[in-house]
Each structure stands twice: as structure tokens, then as C-alpha cells.
Amino acid sequence: MADAYCVKCKAKKEILNATEVTMKNGRPALKGVCPTCGTGLYKILPMKK
């Protein structure tokens, strides 16, 4: 899975329950929660060609 920075834990964590979403500007992103504290995590992915 993918890692994202958790602001609350101040460390990189693995995204739990990751789902791929599309932002308003059309860029893909991963959205999920931190396994330690439950805070929402968001990671912007590169554009698909």
C-alpha cells in the first residue's frame, strides 16, 4: 500500500482503507485513515497518461 504523512502523529504511516478518488482539478489521489490515531490521510498521485 501507499504511505502518507500523518500531521497528528508527525510521521509517515501506511494508509488504512485507501480508496482512489479524483480531485476537482482531475488529479487522482488516495484517501484513507491513519491506523494509529484515525486522522484522515490524503496522498496526491501522479497524473495518468
Please write the string of helix (H) and strand (E) elements.
EEEEE
The fraction of residues assigned to DSSP E strands is over 45%
Read across the widest sheet, the strand sequence of neighbours is: 3-4-5
Distance between the termini: 21 Å
Secondary structure class reads mainly beta
- Number of strand elements: 5
Give the C-alpha Rg: 11 Å
**Major sheet attributes:** 3 strands, antiparallel
Oligomeric state of shown chains: single chain
Q: Report the principal-axis shape.
A: elongated
Whole-number total of structural domains: 1
Helix fraction, binned, reads under 10%
Task: Please tally the helical runs, counting DSSP H or I stretches of 4 or more residues.
Answer: 0
**Mean of residue pLDDT?**
93
Uncertain regions spanning at least 5 consecutive residues: none
Description:
This protein has one domain. It has 49 residues and is mainly β. The chain is elongated. The mean pLDDT is 93. It contains no helices and 5 strands. A hairpin with a 6-residue loop joins strand 4 and strand 5.
Descriptive labels:
single chain, 49 residues, elongated, two-stranded antiparallel sheet
Write the layout of secondary structure elements.
Layout: E1 3-6, E2 11-14, E3 16-22, E4 28-33, E5 40-44
Antiparallel strand pairs: 1-2, 3-4, 4-5
Concise overview:
With 49 residues, the chain is mostly beta strands.
